[in-house]
Amino acid sequence: MNSEIVTLIGSVLSALLGGGLVGGLLAYRRDRRQERQAEATADDVSVQNWNARLLARIAELERELDAERHLRRVLEDRVARLERGAS
Amino acid sequence: MTGAGRRLVRRLPAWMRRQPIEVMVCLVGIPTGLLSLAGLATSRALDQVLPWWVTKLWALCLIAGCAAWLGGLTSAREVDGRMVLWRLPLLLLGLRLLSTAAAVYGVAIVVTAGWAGVLASWPLWVVALGTTVRRLDLADRVRR
Predict the structure, then answer these.
(1) Tag placement on chain A: N or C end, fewer CB within 10 Å?
(2) What is the pLDDT of residues B5-23, one digit of tens each?
(3) What are the two backbone dihedrals, phi and then psi, of residue B85, each rounded to the nearest 5 degrees?
(4) How far lies B109's CA from each of B33, B106, B125, in Å?
């Protein structure tokens, strides 16, 4: 093959190699950044989920506590009535 | 022999057992790149087509590509029967560098040897195409 054409192809291949190397490193940096952001988002989402679950548990416990208080009041009223009846 | 082979394979880490072809390709590329970088092994095709410093850059690209790919492959862990990659960006970098290096070498062989070089460069085209397809598929799956 003509030496000029070989030189031209050599230049194109050099550019391709250099471009591939630089492009690869830039893509790596971008991917790493995206991965870190995704990790941060995942952490954030998991903390939010945990918070929501804790809030739901607190609400459930408060409901149970209210029910217990209501039963206690009913029992206290009944005991008071019985004591009044006995006296 | 078969029993001993099976026992040996069972002792290998999961990332090697599940991706042996990929690991072997990396192990082929690293010594080739190192010898080429040190000037102990030369390629007539690369020497004729590329300036000397680009042949060194090519060797560097090959070593870095294989090392990065291997680094990505070793990060594969079995989770619930599925292989999960923990260093995907490194693996993608390796695939990109390796496909570039393989394609450049393939073109250089065809330029130097003409049609006679097509068969010789065929494995390089296969590697370049295979690594490109793997990279694009992985990148696409991550974005989805």
Answers:
(1) C
(2) 888 888 888 888 888 999 9
(3) -95, 130
(4) 17, 5, 11
Q: Which residue has the tokens 């690209």?
A: B61
Verify whether the Cβ–Cβ distance A32 to B88 is below 8 Å. no
Residue A24 with chain B: CB contacts under 8 Å: 93, 96-97, 100
Supply the DSSP string of B5-72, one letter for each residue: HHHHHHHS-HHHHH-HHHHHHHHHHHHHHHHHHHTSS--HHHHHHS-HHHHHHHHHHHHHHHHHHHHH
Helix B88-113, helix B116-143: angle, nearest 10: 160
Measure in Å the smallest separation between the Cα of A1 and chain B Cα atoms: 8
Q: What is the pLDDT of residues B77-124, one digit of tens each?
A: 877 777 788 888 999 999 999 999 999 999 999 999 888 889 999 999
A10 contact residues in B (CB cutoff 8 A): 49-51, 54
DSSP E strands, A16-69: none
Q: Which residues contact A6 (CB under 8 A, 6 or more apart)?
A: B48, B49, B111
Answer whether B69's CB lies under 8 Å from B46's CB: no
Residues of A with CB under 8 A from a CB of B: 1, 6, 9-10, 13-14, 16-18, 20-21, 23-25, 27-28, 31-32, 35
Q: Are B97 and B64 in contact (CB under 8 A)?
A: yes
Of B101, B117, B112, residue with least CA distance to B45: B112
Q: What is the CA radius of gyration of chain B?
A: 17
Residues 6+ apart with CB under 8 A from A39: none
